[in-house]
Write a structure and sequence with these properties.
Blueprint: H1 2-31, H2 38-41, E1 65-67, E2 73-77, E3 80-84, E4 90-95, E5 98-99, H3 117-130, E6 134-138, E7 148-154, E8 157-158, H4 159-165, E9 170-171, H5 173-176, H6 182-195, H7 203-216
Parallel strand pairs: 4-7
Antiparallel strand pairs: 1-6, 2-3, 3-4, 5-9, 6-7, 7-8
Protein backbone atom coordinates (compact mmCIF):
# COMPACT_ATOMS: atom_id res chain seq x y z
CA UNK A 1 0.00 0.00 0.00
CA UNK A 2 2.82 2.35 0.93
CA UNK A 3 4.60 1.48 -2.31
CA UNK A 4 1.49 2.37 -4.35
CA UNK A 5 1.14 5.66 -2.44
CA UNK A 6 4.75 6.60 -3.09
CA UNK A 7 4.34 5.71 -6.76
CA UNK A 8 1.20 7.88 -7.01
CA UNK A 9 2.95 10.79 -5.34
CA UNK A 10 5.91 10.43 -7.68
CA UNK A 11 3.65 10.41 -10.73
CA UNK A 12 1.80 13.46 -9.44
CA UNK A 13 5.07 15.32 -8.91
CA UNK A 14 6.27 14.36 -12.39
CA UNK A 15 2.97 15.60 -13.84
CA UNK A 16 3.36 18.96 -12.10
CA UNK A 17 6.92 19.33 -13.37
CA UNK A 18 5.78 18.60 -16.93
CA UNK A 19 2.92 21.09 -16.57
CA UNK A 20 5.31 23.85 -15.44
CA UNK A 21 7.70 23.05 -18.28
CA UNK A 22 4.94 23.23 -20.90
CA UNK A 23 3.53 26.43 -19.38
CA UNK A 24 6.97 28.00 -19.48
CA UNK A 25 7.38 27.21 -23.15
CA UNK A 26 3.93 28.63 -23.96
CA UNK A 27 4.54 31.80 -21.98
CA UNK A 28 7.84 32.38 -23.79
CA UNK A 29 6.10 31.69 -27.10
CA UNK A 30 3.51 34.36 -26.31
CA UNK A 31 5.87 37.03 -25.01
CA UNK A 32 8.86 36.84 -27.32
CA UNK A 33 7.12 37.82 -30.58
CA UNK A 34 5.67 40.95 -28.98
CA UNK A 35 9.00 42.63 -28.20
CA UNK A 36 8.08 45.22 -30.83
CA UNK A 37 4.40 45.34 -29.95
CA UNK A 38 2.39 48.36 -28.91
CA UNK A 39 3.16 47.75 -25.22
CA UNK A 40 6.92 47.90 -25.71
CA UNK A 41 6.66 50.73 -28.23
CA UNK A 42 4.54 53.02 -26.09
CA UNK A 43 6.42 56.33 -25.83
CA UNK A 44 7.46 57.35 -22.33
CA UNK A 45 8.96 60.61 -21.15
CA UNK A 46 12.26 59.30 -19.82
CA UNK A 47 14.63 62.25 -19.59
CA UNK A 48 14.32 65.93 -18.73
CA UNK A 49 14.68 68.27 -21.68
CA UNK A 50 17.58 70.71 -21.75
CA UNK A 51 16.36 73.73 -23.69
CA UNK A 52 18.60 75.94 -25.80
CA UNK A 53 18.86 79.69 -25.89
CA UNK A 54 15.62 81.12 -27.34
CA UNK A 55 16.05 81.94 -31.02
CA UNK A 56 19.60 80.60 -31.08
CA UNK A 57 21.16 78.71 -33.98
CA UNK A 58 20.36 74.99 -34.00
CA UNK A 59 23.40 73.11 -32.67
CA UNK A 60 22.15 69.70 -33.84
CA UNK A 61 22.13 68.50 -37.44
CA UNK A 62 19.69 70.63 -39.41
CA UNK A 63 18.65 70.97 -43.02
CA UNK A 64 18.94 67.19 -43.40
CA UNK A 65 16.60 64.40 -42.38
CA UNK A 66 17.66 62.45 -39.30
CA UNK A 67 16.29 58.99 -38.45
CA UNK A 68 14.32 58.76 -35.20
CA UNK A 69 13.19 55.61 -33.36
CA UNK A 70 9.54 55.40 -32.36
CA UNK A 71 10.56 54.12 -28.94
CA UNK A 72 12.42 57.36 -28.27
CA UNK A 73 9.37 59.59 -28.87
CA UNK A 74 7.03 60.94 -26.22
CA UNK A 75 3.90 62.68 -27.55
CA UNK A 76 3.22 65.81 -25.53
CA UNK A 77 0.33 66.83 -27.79
CA UNK A 78 -0.54 66.84 -31.47
CA UNK A 79 2.20 69.29 -32.45
CA UNK A 80 4.92 68.79 -29.83
CA UNK A 81 7.04 65.71 -29.12
CA UNK A 82 10.03 64.90 -26.96
CA UNK A 83 12.83 62.66 -28.18
CA UNK A 84 15.13 60.82 -25.79
CA UNK A 85 18.28 60.03 -27.71
CA UNK A 86 20.46 56.96 -27.11
CA UNK A 87 22.97 58.95 -25.08
CA UNK A 88 20.25 59.98 -22.63
CA UNK A 89 19.85 63.56 -23.87
CA UNK A 90 16.34 64.80 -24.54
CA UNK A 91 15.11 67.19 -27.21
CA UNK A 92 11.71 68.85 -27.45
CA UNK A 93 10.47 69.41 -30.99
CA UNK A 94 7.76 71.88 -31.90
CA UNK A 95 6.46 70.51 -35.17
CA UNK A 96 6.51 73.16 -37.87
CA UNK A 97 3.58 74.25 -39.98
CA UNK A 98 0.79 73.23 -37.61
CA UNK A 99 -1.10 74.22 -34.49
CA UNK A 100 -3.04 71.28 -33.01
CA UNK A 101 -5.84 71.60 -30.44
CA UNK A 102 -4.66 72.09 -26.87
CA UNK A 103 -4.33 69.28 -24.33
CA UNK A 104 -4.97 69.84 -20.63
CA UNK A 105 -1.81 69.50 -18.51
CA UNK A 106 -2.86 70.17 -14.94
CA UNK A 107 0.65 69.58 -13.59
CA UNK A 108 1.90 72.39 -15.85
CA UNK A 109 -0.75 74.90 -14.92
CA UNK A 110 -2.96 74.17 -17.94
CA UNK A 111 -6.18 72.81 -16.42
CA UNK A 112 -8.27 73.07 -19.59
CA UNK A 113 -7.86 71.77 -23.10
CA UNK A 114 -9.89 71.55 -26.28
CA UNK A 115 -12.09 68.51 -26.72
CA UNK A 116 -10.35 67.70 -30.01
CA UNK A 117 -6.94 67.64 -28.32
CA UNK A 118 -6.94 63.91 -27.46
CA UNK A 119 -8.02 63.10 -31.03
CA UNK A 120 -4.99 64.95 -32.40
CA UNK A 121 -2.65 63.07 -30.06
CA UNK A 122 -4.27 59.75 -30.97
CA UNK A 123 -3.84 60.56 -34.66
CA UNK A 124 -0.16 61.39 -34.14
CA UNK A 125 0.50 58.19 -32.20
CA UNK A 126 -1.21 56.07 -34.81
CA UNK A 127 0.51 57.77 -37.73
CA UNK A 128 3.97 57.48 -36.15
CA UNK A 129 3.25 53.96 -34.90
CA UNK A 130 2.35 52.68 -38.37
CA UNK A 131 5.37 54.23 -40.08
CA UNK A 132 8.32 52.04 -41.03
CA UNK A 133 10.64 55.05 -41.10
CA UNK A 134 10.50 58.25 -39.05
CA UNK A 135 12.72 61.18 -39.95
CA UNK A 136 13.16 64.64 -38.44
CA UNK A 137 14.11 67.68 -40.51
CA UNK A 138 15.24 70.51 -38.22
CA UNK A 139 15.14 74.22 -39.03
CA UNK A 140 18.34 76.22 -38.47
CA UNK A 141 17.05 78.09 -35.40
CA UNK A 142 15.31 77.29 -32.13
CA UNK A 143 11.95 78.83 -31.23
CA UNK A 144 11.34 81.50 -28.58
CA UNK A 145 11.25 78.82 -25.87
CA UNK A 146 14.53 77.21 -26.91
CA UNK A 147 12.88 74.21 -28.57
CA UNK A 148 13.79 72.57 -31.84
CA UNK A 149 11.63 73.52 -34.81
CA UNK A 150 11.21 70.83 -37.43
CA UNK A 151 9.13 68.64 -39.67
CA UNK A 152 8.64 64.89 -39.24
CA UNK A 153 8.47 62.58 -42.23
CA UNK A 154 6.68 59.24 -41.90
CA UNK A 155 7.63 56.88 -44.72
CA UNK A 156 8.51 60.01 -46.67
CA UNK A 157 5.21 61.84 -46.00
CA UNK A 158 5.20 65.15 -44.16
CA UNK A 159 3.30 64.57 -40.91
CA UNK A 160 2.19 68.21 -40.84
CA UNK A 161 0.36 67.68 -44.10
CA UNK A 162 -1.20 64.45 -42.86
CA UNK A 163 -2.68 65.95 -39.69
CA UNK A 164 -3.97 68.98 -41.62
CA UNK A 165 -5.62 66.69 -44.15
CA UNK A 166 -7.26 64.92 -41.21
CA UNK A 167 -8.61 68.35 -40.15
CA UNK A 168 -6.95 68.05 -36.74
CA UNK A 169 -4.64 71.06 -36.98
CA UNK A 170 -4.48 74.62 -38.29
CA UNK A 171 -1.64 75.64 -40.60
CA UNK A 172 0.81 78.20 -39.19
CA UNK A 173 2.96 78.94 -42.23
CA UNK A 174 0.80 81.96 -43.06
CA UNK A 175 1.56 83.45 -39.66
CA UNK A 176 5.19 82.42 -39.08
CA UNK A 177 6.66 81.84 -42.52
CA UNK A 178 8.71 78.95 -43.84
CA UNK A 179 11.53 78.94 -41.25
CA UNK A 180 13.92 78.35 -44.12
CA UNK A 181 12.17 75.16 -45.25
CA UNK A 182 10.25 76.49 -48.23
CA UNK A 183 9.19 73.35 -50.05
CA UNK A 184 7.87 71.76 -46.84
CA UNK A 185 6.00 74.96 -45.94
CA UNK A 186 4.50 75.08 -49.43
CA UNK A 187 3.23 71.53 -49.00
CA UNK A 188 1.53 72.49 -45.74
CA UNK A 189 -0.18 75.48 -47.36
CA UNK A 190 -1.36 73.31 -50.23
CA UNK A 191 -2.84 70.74 -47.84
CA UNK A 192 -4.63 73.48 -45.87
CA UNK A 193 -6.14 74.97 -49.01
CA UNK A 194 -7.36 71.55 -50.09
CA UNK A 195 -9.27 70.71 -46.89
CA UNK A 196 -10.27 74.15 -45.65
CA UNK A 197 -10.55 75.44 -42.09
CA UNK A 198 -10.95 72.85 -39.29
CA UNK A 199 -14.26 72.79 -37.43
CA UNK A 200 -12.77 73.48 -33.98
CA UNK A 201 -11.60 76.78 -32.50
CA UNK A 202 -8.19 78.03 -33.59
CA UNK A 203 -5.80 76.89 -30.79
CA UNK A 204 -4.14 80.32 -30.70
CA UNK A 205 -7.54 81.93 -30.06
CA UNK A 206 -8.28 79.30 -27.40
CA UNK A 207 -4.97 80.01 -25.63
CA UNK A 208 -5.58 83.75 -25.74
CA UNK A 209 -9.08 83.37 -24.37
CA UNK A 210 -7.87 81.04 -21.62
CA UNK A 211 -5.12 83.45 -20.66
CA UNK A 212 -7.54 86.37 -20.47
CA UNK A 213 -9.96 84.33 -18.37
CA UNK A 214 -7.18 83.28 -16.00
CA UNK A 215 -5.96 86.87 -15.76
CA UNK A 216 -9.47 88.09 -14.93
CA UNK A 217 -9.56 85.71 -12.01
Amino acid sequence: MKRKLRKALALSLLGLLLLFAVSGRHSRRWFRPFSGSLASRLPRERAPVVYGEPGALQSRDHGVRVAVSLRSIYFDDGDTVKITWSGGTAEEVRILGIDAPEIAHKNRGRPLGQKEGPDAVAFARKAFGQAKTIELLRADRLDKYGRTLGYFFLDGRNFSELIIEARLAYETVSAYGSNGLRSEAAGVLSAARKVGTPSFEDPSAFRKRLKETSGAK
